[in-house]
Structure prediction request, 899 residues.
Amino acid sequence: MRSVHLILCLIILAVAAFAWIERKPTVSQFDPTIHEGFKAAWAKGKHFASNAERDAAFRDNWNGRVHISYWEKWGSFEAEACQKMVDAFNESQESIFVHYVRTSQVDRKAMLAIVGGDPPEVVGLWSNNVRPFAEADALLPLDEWMAKSGLTDDHYILNYLLLCRHKGTTFCLPSTPATIALFYNKDHYRLKADKLIAAGCDPNRPPRTIAELDRYADAMSEFHPDGTPNVMGFIPTEPGWFPTSWPYFFGGALWDANTGELTIDRPENIRAFEWIKSYANRYGRQNLSRFQQGFGNYDSPQNAFIDGKVSMVLQGVYFPAFIDRHRPHLKYGVAPFPTVDGVPGPRSLMNEDVLGIPRGCKHPKEAWTFLHWVQTQGLPIVCRLQGKHLPIRPSPEDDRKFRQGHPNRFLDTFDELAKAKHSFIMPRTAVWREYADEYRVAFDHVWHWAPPADELEGLTGEAHSKKLRELCRREIVETLGRMRKHLEERQKTVKKREAMRDGMGAR
Amino acid sequence: MTGNLRKNLTGYGFVLPWLMGLTFFIAYPFFAAGYFSFCDFPPMKGPMFIGGDNYVELLSDPIFHRTLGVTTMFAAVAIPLGVLLAMSLALFLNAKIHGQAIYRVVFYLPHLVPTVVVAVLWMWIFNPEAGLLNLVLRYLFAVADGWTGLFFDIDRLAGGTGSLTPRAGLLLLALVPALLAWGPLARKIHRPESRARPVLATVAVVAIVLAALAIVGALLYRFAPGDMKKIHSPGWLTDGDPFPAGVPFAPSWALWGIIIMSMWGIGQMAVIYLAKLQDVPVELYEAAEIDGAGWWRKTISVTIPMISPVILFNVVMSIIGAFQVFAAPYIMTQGGPENKTRFVAMFVYDQAFQYHRVGYASAVAAVLFLIIVALTLVAFRLSKRHVHYSAR
Prediction:
């Protein structure tokens, strides 16, 4: 019996020891004032030469600071970049200390925290969160603070500031921006120069129109003897992150910004979907799906573009940093994504990460101090370390400093796209989340849809192609029409409910 | 304080923590959700009563219909399949074989693995190019195709005109020596100490699997040549095509993937069957044996009636579980392709946390609750005639 007790005690001790070793880090661990005694002596001895002075100053003002938390979405080197910006802020003054908290699904968790009444002081969202958060009354308006501290529209590239506004009120401010462009593998262009020339393409430059892109893609694709792809020139579904952008390269749009009307099934958009479907028809949707299943993660050497499986992809300003991490010697170029003949360019989707102050946070004033510092001094740190351009208009001197030794060689291209006249932002409608989700489903449907075999039976050559195009078009028109109808119903419901709430408020 | 009162208070004191948990974490959210289902409720703005509008909207919401269809399809396939496989597994684990305890542990272990881990693991297993499942399928079909080609006229099958080749006559001829050999072979196999037993059992299982695949292959060549090609190496989670093609309401390949994955956790169900199996009185089997019953007859007439209450329990739990499936498809497919693996629970989550429509999500949850209650009642009603309670 004794031995049983002894074993039980040992187990409890082992569990306690394990729990202590594996304990979660607490905020107090960041507090230098608690590192007294042996720990402090050890830490001092270790870092005396470099940090002693700074640590001492830090310790002196630690308890006098207001501690605020900042939830952000990034991981990996992007998180490190953001942490460095936060560190710079913490060192720049002695009254506030920002705790950077890395959070996955930050928008959903932030909303729960806001509803629960215990949100962080600053939250890093995506620009498409601005409207739903603003409408839910979950963020504090920033215009008054901006006016007081002299932050005006001129400080920003206007589209990036517009992404932060809802019904004329600024609810967020930019953190890091993103534009997208065509990445092309220069080695593939060189190796397949003969094929490209034979197809009427210039191997020394990227395609400038969609028709050219298709010819380049055809010439650069390689297949195994059984017809399955080995290397693909281009696939609209790789990486498939910006499906809602395709219509804009065909002169289309997903909504009418003036009337708020949803325009998913306008002719240019249908044309974009036909173009997407043409890839599935040409190379076989099953073949392409299986081919894509063999790709590795985005942030890995097995990324389709980095690994040389796909020669051209539509990607963002952040992508060169990932290429440099996994295959620094890859020879590639970046150019504006082609548009269809007659549609002016260059153009790009403009997107960004934004910072907001949640309603109900404990220290909104300190949060604004941090936000203001980020807008005036922090953005160059984080944007540079993440390999991105700036969402603001810096002074010529600051701009020169920012560009000097910037890790992204293609910064100018992305910067120009950000300022381009025809660049576009995603619809700012109340049902955008549903819109984007349904769009993806419609996109999937069109991509995977197989035309009825009996309608194509007996047809060959041009007659077969013509009939196939006709059937696909019919399916696309029906799919997009259904989608518009459903979303319009939703939009009506939202408006009706808003009116009801307004009516109740008025009473 | 009287003894009785003190006793009662002590009792209530002990159950108080549980009662508080029940009140605050189950009863309150349950009734609150019921009320919210009649409200428009963006989280920051508070609920606004709108009557039955959410329910009316549900009637015409195509995405809700799709998710309900997917969930029902999953339940219709996964529940019977799960019950059948778990029961077979329990019968196997109940047999007196070497290493019985190890097998029991092995089959129960998957149930202990968290769903997220299982989902990630199965994403790799289902990878069409590098996945384990397709690797096995390719090898199996390499042999099975040979059998199909040997016994069936594939070209004519695909055209829908022919069936067996003359070579299939060999099958019939092979039956004669097989029947002749069966007597002495069976006697040998029935001896527990026979060394030939495991070898023959393995050969028999492999032959049965291959023969089954050959027949499946022939049927597919006949009715769905496209599926025949695809079954050699399916796209699984990325493929939204129905299988078998042309069959109304057939699950997509992606949904089949989720169904197959869900079978990995049947160990729990099998252990419950096993407990009941060991409770079946030996005398009943002895009496059946005296009456000349073989293994099959004993299973049908003794085992299944005796464990029928547990079958009912497992069916009811499976119904509840099937309508709550969330984590696996959320991680593996995010509802795609084309919403063909979007379950109702995912729809509820999206409405509440993605679109901030708590009222609408509550209405869907209420409908889901009513469906589960209705199906459970149906299961109880149908079971009255077939479930045998030995204590009554």
Notes: The domain at 51-170+351-419 of chain A is CATH 3.40.190.10 (D-Maltodextrin-Binding Protein; domain 2). The first helix of chain A runs from residue 2 to 21. The interface with chain B takes residues 108, 111-112, 114-115, 132, 135-138, 286, 289-290, 292-294, 359, 433-434, 437-438, 440-441, 444-445, 448, 450, 482, 486, 489, 493, 497, 500-501, 504 of chain A (CB under 8 Å). Residues 381 and 472 of chain A are 49 Å apart (CA to CA).
